[in-house]
């Protein structure tokens, strides 16, 4: 705009100059749907700008996952990229090419790469210690359960004996047979069901005759009474002869 003055007044004229210049750019970073997106924004005249993406120290041009909207270009990074990369953006128009703008991007680095060596070793030691502790606790629980199960299957004999003693009555104790008493009773004279131990059988009477046992009169030792009665019958003729 130009303004001229004199004594009669002033006059102003406006003119426009179209200055053409090559693009200038800058890169910003954002995240869309869990993916890292780089945005290259350019200012240029003329505004017809083309964008080129590259990785620093590499000659290949990135053409996949690139979208241009006006003076902006969007580059969506692949999720499998783990190492640090420096991305370069070139903006071009009819005047020339811009100075490349760049940005360092780590991509989706694994969680173990985010730790330093010392911190990584500490983390691994903690994880290993926790796993070992869990294994030891499980082994102890298994051993205790097995011992308890074995104790339930095989109870303590002394405890079982004490329990049986408590449950037994005085009459049960009287019915129990003592080995010494058994030997004593076997050696008594009235025990005629079997021979005394280590003694041969020797009948008292050579002419002993056995008669039928009368269970009504003699009870459990009827065989003894019957033998005595038979012996008396054998001696009775001699008494009769003496009377004659």
From TrEMBL:
SUPFAM superfamilies: Immunoglobulin. The chain crosses the membrane at residues 120-145. Residues 154-177 are annotated as: Disordered. InterPro entries: Ig-like_dom, Ig-like_dom_sf, Ig-like_fold, Immunoglobulin_dom. Keywords: Membrane, Transmembrane, Transmembrane helix. Residues 23-106 form the Ig-like domain. CDD domains: Ig. This is Ig-like domain-containing protein. It comes from Graphocephala atropunctata.
């Amino acid at each position: 705009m130009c303004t001229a003055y004199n004594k009669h007044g002033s006059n102003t004229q406006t003119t426009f100059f179209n200055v053409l210049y090559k693009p200038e750019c800058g890169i910003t970073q954002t995240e869309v749907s869990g993916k890292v997106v780089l945005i290259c924004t350019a200012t240029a005249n003329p505004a017809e700008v083309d964008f080129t993406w590259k990785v620093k120290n590499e000659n290949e041009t990135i053409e996949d996952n690139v979208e241009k909207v006006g003076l902006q270009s969007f580059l969506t990074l692949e999720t499998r990229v783990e190492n640090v990369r420096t991305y370069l953006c070139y903006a071009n128009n009819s005047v020339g090419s811009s100075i490349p703008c760049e940005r360092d991007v780590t991509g989706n680095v694994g969680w173990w790469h985010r730790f330093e060596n010392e911190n990584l070793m500490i983390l691994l030691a903690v994880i290993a210690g926790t796993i070992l502790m869990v294994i030891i606790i499980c082994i102890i629980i298994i051993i205790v359960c097995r011992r308890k199960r074995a104790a339930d299957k095989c109870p303590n004999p002394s405890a079982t004996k004490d329990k049986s003693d408590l449950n037994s009555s005085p009459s049960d104790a009287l019915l129990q047979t003592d080995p010494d008493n058994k030997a004593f009773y076997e050696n008594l004279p009235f025990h005629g069901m079997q021979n005394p131990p280590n003694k041969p059988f020797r009948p008292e009477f050579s002419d002993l005759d056995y008669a039928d046992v009368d269970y009504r009169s003699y009870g459990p030792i009827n065989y003894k009474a019957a033998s005595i009665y038979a012996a008396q019958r054998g001696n009775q003729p001699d008494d009769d002869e003496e009377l004659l």
